[in-house]
Amino acid sequence: MSDGTRALETDPSVCYRHPGRQSWVLCQRCGRTVCPECQIQAPVGVHCPECVAETSGGVAWRPAHDVTPLAKPKRRRQPGRVRSMLAGASSSGTAVASQTILVAYAALFLVGLVTNNLPAQWLGGLPGTAWQLWRFVTAPLTYPAGLDISILFAALSGVFWWLTAPQLERMLGMRRFLGVVAVASIIGTAGMLLSGGAAFGLTAPLFGLFAALLVEVWGDPRARTQILVITAINLLFALTGGGLPALVGGIIGGAGTVYLLQSGPSRGWKPRTPVLIIAGVCALLVVLAVLRGGLPVL
């Protein structure tokens, strides 16, 4: 093993196989940090791919305390580290997806100021337009623009996204991050349309990410407490702007997506089974929202 690889493995803030991804989960056998993609459910806890390979092929399973660690176990992240990371502390890796979403959100808001809110009219989740299926994904990118209090609410959503989403993308990985954002957006938008309201803004995907992260760190009491506190603070700001169905839908979408993806292997499911379940739930809610709003008259 090279010196560079050993240096990465001693950093408790990143996955030992993917140094650009944050994680709090440790392999129960060797003590190395593993990201969601590298986590494999074992008879006792989560293990890394190398430990699973070493104990497979007829090798008898031994408890973790009987196995000589491959690397020195790392101390769990202190609460201050968790808080600083979620507040925008620097970390390795890029966050292209979250930054692109924020740029698109800001650009569409500015365009709305000078076009009488055309982006919100064509992309937002408006009652009676649920049959235009793209709105379930694009609604979070829009916000009714005006020279009034809407600027403050739009800016707060953007700031919270900027402070949290890039770090969550680095931890979850781009593919899982985009999956959580998409599912939370669809369910949140469907929830608003089913309640008879309009869906705008980053509330659904933002709280979907918070919920996904909470599932990831649930086994660490200190990290869990920090995420709950940060979520509660954001919840107070979000409720002042309304949109409770979008908020609840985002939480359900984010938590449900990560939970199903994590628990699938331990249940003996095929890799596509959690994806099919998630897609089925989203499709059902979209159909209900379309029926609730009425089909277009041809």
Automatic annotation (TrEMBL):
Membrane-topology descriptor: Multi-pass membrane protein
| A Gene Ontology term for the protein's cellular component | membrane
Please list the GO terms describing molecular function: serine-type endopeptidase activity
Compartments it resides in: Membrane
Q: Mainly localized where?
A: membrane
Q: Does the keyword Cell inner membrane apply?
A: no
Kindly state which keywords UniProt assigns to this record, in alphabetical order: Hydrolase, Membrane, Protease, Transmembrane, Transmembrane helix
Instruction: Describe the location of the Peptidase S54 rhomboid domain by residue ranges.
Output: 131-261
Pfam families in the record: Rhomboid
Q: Name one GO biological process term.
A: proteolysis
Q: Where is the chain membrane-spanning?
A: 85-114, 141-165, 177-194, 200-218, 227-255, 275-295
Q: What is this protein called?
A: Membrane associated rhomboid family serine protease
